[in-house]
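Narrative of activities, Objective 1.

The group set out to show that a structural description can be obtained from nothing but a protein's sequence at a throughput compatible with the screening campaign. Below is one input-output pair from the validation batch, recorded exactly as produced.
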Amino acid sequence: MPNPIAPDVVYKLKSVGDPELSPDGSWLAYTLSWVDAQKLEGRSRIMLMDLESGQTVEFTQGQRDGAPKFSPDCQTLGFLRPDEKDKRQVWLMGTRGGEARRLTSLAGGASDLAWSPDGTRLLVCSDVPEEPPERDGLPESTPRVTEIHRIRYRFDTLGWRGDAHFHLFTVNVADGETSQLTDGDWDDYAGVWSPDGSRVAFISGRRDDRDIRALTEAYVVPASGGDAELWSEGLYGVGALAWSPEGDRLLAAATDVPTGLVSWQSWLYVIQPGHNPERITDDSIKPFVSFPPMNPGPSMRWQSDGRILFLGERRGESYLFEAHVGEVGSHELHGGSRQTSGLALDRDARHAVEMSASPASPGDLLLLDLDTGAINQLTGANAEYLAECPPATMEKFTFERGGFVIESRLWFPPNFDPSWQYPLVVDIHGGPNGAFYDAFATVQQVLATAGCLVLAVNPRGSSTYGDEFMNAVLEDWGGEDYLDLMAAVDLVAERPYVDSARLGVHGYSYGGYMTSWTLGHSDRFVAGVVGAPCTNLYSMYGTSDIGTSFGEVQWGGTVADACQELLFRSPITYAANVTAPVLLLHGESDYRCPISQSEEYYTLLKRLDKEVEFVRFPGSAHSFTRLGHPKMREEYLARTLGWFQKHLFK
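Output recorded for this entry:
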């Protein structure tokens, strides 16, 4: 019998990320991360690989080094390392070795860095903290009131924001002299140098309604400082930028939909002042964007011959795409059957390195020769562990419902025997505009390798299936998307190896919403695990960090506009119908779906004499299952598995 992927996988897996190719294509720098099981702390080092020989060395010796960037002459590597106050600062180190040199001492630390074309300066994004309160002569231990001046005064994972903002700085490489390039009551980030180094393009949220709408724009500012110029007139959200080779235009991953968010669906546009945005990709793909400034996005490249190279996603799969300026459309260069979240290109775009996860691996680095099409896997960070603990296998299937094709993924235990009957757990993704990919998902692997089937559905509302499909969930939470999920359950339950008397359901965030909604609308499930849910949209509107910017679009307006609709769409309204035992798992520092959402639901279920347990995770934000303390991540997996073992496994 193969060993299962157990909750202690948190301490077993390593991850690779931040791929960075040297401009001449001879070296690859990347971050290797793992958990120190003795100290229960995350660790990361920068690795340097000679691509000709394949030899790899541990380049840095810090505790949490990351974000490597080669200088234009390939002689120096810049990277980020925490200082004594746990703020990441920029360090420099010669690529031939030697001692690392600290370059910055920014009060808010650095979240990203980019070399100027001539290698003399760095562009850095840093958090500019709000002004401290004036000293009043009272002891430090004296409590003080806190004033709030805007709706977006806190943000999940980042915590209290107050009047703090992200802004751009330039840093001289020679002496570390630092100049603040942008300022204002808004966030500026994701800066990109123009080809001649005279200007910087960046993303900002400067609209007058920025406090209630999460919309962003593209601006350009002189690298020496001055007024910023808006370049993205006609667009409502910008997620990534790249310059044209001549420096007269910008490539933007963006959206022109007023109610849309660029993280849900974007297209590629060519933009310049005084011209309407020119869209060059269609609705069949979603260009990849991340969540800057916390997670800088991968490279996009505009070549001198008009080719555009970028990562994109389609139907839960990632590809390296090529598009052309002046045309609409794109074609695949590489990919499929994977989820890619990192891309690096050399100077001439002859080689690319991707950071990709697959159904069989949580992620490795692949080298692509873009001239010949040759592919070489560069890392195998978890090969030994996965040989001892083989992952679940995946089957994809589709069906039609309500005018849409719904895609699902079914995960099987490694030793699957079709003559047996297995319990089935339905796993529901977040968003609602998220998606399941052809990729290793830890909670699915833990459940499936323990001996059950796991069904992962992308119902309407999921991204990567086109704008119409994605928008179908707006103002319809728990409506047609719920019916899509149940239709998938019906299809799978017909299979002879599925024990339809042992059905469970799990989800996190919007998945937690849909899990609690499902338990209040169906008695087919015998157990449910509800992670960080939204259960009462009425109260969530005023307590979530995105209650206005996200909620008004998703739910149909403010509390004043849609009071009855919010209550109708809230799972807490249907708590009396719940028959299955419910386990609630929630981080105490969650500002996205505040823990009060679970507190309200737990109290009512308990009052109604339902079987319910509530587990609180201290110091844990909404993203803790991915980025939180390793012990909390292990506990989430262990509690989820234990609940289903108790109620589903025989």
